[in-house]
Design goal:
The chain contains six helices and seven strands, in the order E-H-E-H-E-E-H-E-E-H-E-H-H. It has 191 residues and is α/β, with parallel strands linked by helices. Strands 1, 2, 3, 4, 5, 6 and 7 form a seven-stranded mixed β-sheet that branches. It binds thymidine-5'-triphosphate. Thymidine-5'-triphosphate (TTP) binds next to strand 3. Its EC number is 3.6.1.9.
């Protein structure tokens, strides 16, 4: 119809319910297309930040659309990547490693627009309390950490494990949402 622009839709190349909820909370019209990518492999970088960037690119590059957003979150304990735990035993191990220490959470974002492509990585430092074996067992049996990088969710029961956070909280839970908001806003995509 003359004079009526097609409403913009942001294609979210992610199966993460967290990412979806954050963008929906801001009112962005979304189309969710989970990418089917291998998140492991010999061809991926070892460096945690580079790994997050490579995976975000891989996810976003898979999905067609005019406005496409993808992200990847990596937990980095002194250079060692802690991915999603394979099972409860590994989740237990991860929490023992994280206990009483500070780690970094890197979230890379990939935003493809009709004008350009932005790929960048954001980092937040998270410090865990000293956790007892009983506390770790309590958390692991909840199952909350199993689908999350590092084996915990700072937005859920995992809040009880934290001593402090330095940086953007939303970077920890999977999307530096204020930065995404700015990138979209600057390009004329407003919720
Ligand atoms: C550290 C941490 C991670 N996470 C989540 C965010 C991400 O969803 C997940 C890391 O895995 P990702 O591979 O980044 O994302 P995903 O597999 O859930 O979704 P997709 O690849 O389809 O986009 O861990 C939390 O929800 N809370 C936390 O505190």
């Amino acid at each position: 119809m003359a004079g009526r622009a097609t409403p913009l839709v942001l294609t979210l190349a992610s199966g993460s319910p967290r990412r979806r909820a954050l963008l929906e909370a801001l009112g962005f019209p979304l189309r969710v297309v989970p990418p089917r990518v291998e998140e492991a492999g010999e061809d991926l970088p070892q460096d945690p930040r580079e790994l997050a960037l490579a995976l975000a690119r891989r996810k976003g590059g898979e999905v067609p659309g005019e406005w496409v957003l993808a992200a990847d979150t990596v937990v980095d304990l002194d250079g060692r990547v802690l991915g999603k735990p394979r099972d409860r035993v590994e989740n237990h191990l991860f929490l023992r490693l994280l206990s009483g220490r500070t780690h970094q959470v890197h979230t890379a974002i990939y935003l493809r627009t009709p004008q350009d492509l932005v790929v960048e990585v954001h980092t937040t430092r998270v410090r865990f309390r000293n956790l007892s074996q009983e506390e770790i067992a309590w958390y692991v049996q909840s199952g909350e950490g199993l689908d999350k990088a590092g084996g915990y969710g700072a937005q859920g029961l995992g809040m009880a494990l934290l001593e402090g956070i330095e940086g953007d909280f939303y970077t920890v839970v999977g999307l530096p949402v204020a930065r995404v908001f700015v990138l979209l806003w600057e390009r004329g995509f407003r919720p």
